[in-house]
UniProtKB/TrEMBL annotation:
Matching PANTHER family: LACTATE UTILIZATION PROTEIN C (PTHR43682:SF1)
InterPro entries named among the record's database cross-references: Cys_rich_dom (IPR004017)
Domain Cysteine-rich: 233-331
Sample GO molecular function, one term: oxidoreductase activity
Species annotation: Sulfolobus acidocaldarius
A Pfam family of this chain: CCG
Protein's recorded name: Heterodisulfide reductase subunit B
Length: 436
């Protein structure tokens, strides 16, 4: 390699790593995978998005000042706007069904931080299970589900916040497909018109964990328990940063910007110590199709490739992650090891649960740790949470509910902001009148 080639290589490395002064070759290799894993870069997609808006082919749900957005850098250096209020919650099927303390922790944190949000009762599934596990659907149908949900957010004027990592990755791919392929738009538009809707694409696709990271320092100001002695291993979900990888936020304060900002940065900002382990890059073992067809592989992978390295190498007290399947797999696979005499019993929490518990949320009514298979109670005792008192109150609450002596507790008034379902903003009324 001559000097001219070395100079070009140095320049290319600096361009690829705008946030880090020093680079090792393993990171270079991974960044190259990230950068070229999609045929069109994020900047090109955004440029085409605004062109289509100018032509009147699509509606763009912009990140407006009323959403109080905060900008963070994405992988390729482009700024990504993260709305912090007036948020439309696109909830997760798996979270609500298997880890209910996950979404309730998100809502509880938003209540504590006085965030304006809308818990949408008319949302549908993203069909991510169908997309990743069966392959039985088709691009137009997948795009239709995406646009239908985004239209719901658009007409309420609240910005969509995606809870599920699979929905997040899936929707990023759907956005790119709609923007880059006119044949999809041509087939999709008449379908949406039959529903009295049109093609709406948000300016940003935002995962709740990105919001959580942006707000984590503010949340830490209301922290009730000291986490300085806690060693936390983190698993960053594949569907968040390996699907359309350049559209995820990074921060030089988190691993020098070499790994996604969330959820590692959230854990760090709450005062816990991040511990590393050799298999941080690997999948949690969930993998969609093989969780259905080779479940024992999933359970073994989660234990031997994730849990054991986190404990033996990182000496972790807790495993923190930020996606439905990852929490479920890492938490609920450990009983298999126990059955075979390999009992590590590493508590697994979503970042939202981790933050909420640190802020003093009830472990049972809010974080709902009784849905977990691992010993979360033991971890909470270590940080000073009066677990037994909370459990006694919770059991009494359940008893009183059964006896009719207690009313159901809600995180917000029932049918909150119902006016948004009965009347549409003037902007949408005007748009619909133009289509007649």
């Amino acid at each position: 390699m001559n000097k001219e080639q070395e100079k070009k290589l140095d320049e290319a490395i600096k361009e690829a790593f705008p946030m880090a002064d020093q680079v090792d070759w393993e990171d270079v290799y991974q960044r190259i995978i990230y950068k070229y894993s999609t045929p069109h870069g994020l900047q090109h997609v955004k440029e085409e998005l605004y062109k289509l808006e100018d032509k009147g082919e699509i509606l763009v749900h912009h990140v407006k000042p009323m959403y109080n957005p905060v900008e963070y850098q994405s992988l390729n250096g482009l700024p990504k706007k993260i709305p912090t209020t007036k948020l439309w919650h696109h909830k997760s099927c798996g979270q609500c069904g298997h880890i209910p303390g996950y979404p309730t922790s998100v809502f509880w944190i938003m209540n504590k931080l006085e965030i304006d949000y809308l818990d949408e009762p008319h949302q549908t599934s993203c069909t991510g299970w169908n997309y990743h596990a069966s392959g039985a659907s088709n691009p137009v149908a997948l795009a239709g589900v995406y646009v239908r949900n985004m239209w719901r957010a658009y007409e309420t004027d609240y910005f969509p916040l995606i809870h599920c990592g699979t929905s997040f990755g899936h929707y990023k791919e759907m956005r790119n497909m709609i923007i880059l392929h006119s044949e999809i738009r041509e087939k999709l538009r008449p379908i949406m018109r039959k529903l009295d809707m049109d093609i709406v694409v948000p300016e940003e696709v935002v995962h709740y964990s990105e919001w959580m990271y942006v707000m984590s320092k503010k949340a830490a100001q209301q922290k009730k328990y000291n986490l300085e002695g806690v060693k936390a291993a983190v698993h960053t979900p594949c569907h968040i940063y390996k699907l359309v990888p350049e559209d995820t936020i990074y921060d030089p304060e988190v691993y020098q910007g070499r790994r996604p900002a969330a959820p590692s940065g959230t854990v760090k900002n709450l005062g816990a110590k991040l511990v590393d382990y050799s298999t941080w890059w690997d999948c949690c073992g969930f993998g969609f199709r093989h969780i259905l067809t080779e479940r024992e592989f999933t359970r073994s992978f989660a234990l031997f490739k994730k849990v054991i390295p986190a404990v033996e190498e990182g000496h972790a007290d807790v495993f923190v992650t930020s996606d439905t399947g990852c929490v479920t797999t890492l938490d609920k696979s450990q009983w298999v090891g126990k059955a075979h005499g390999v009992n590590y019993n590493l508590p697994v929490l979503a970042d939202a649960q981790f933050v909420a518990l640190a802020m003093g949320a009830d472990p049972y009514t809010i974080a709902q740790i009784h849905w977990h298979a691992t010993d979360v109670e033991g971890f909470l005792r270590k940080i000073g949470v009066p677990v037994d008192d909370h459990k006694e109150k919770f059991l009494q609450y359940l008893h009183d509910l059964r006896e009719g002596k207690e009313e159901t507790q809600y995180l917000y008034p029932k049918h909150r902001k119902i006016d948004f379902y009965l009347t549409l903003p003037d902007r949408v009324k005007w748009y619909k009148s133009q289509q007649k």
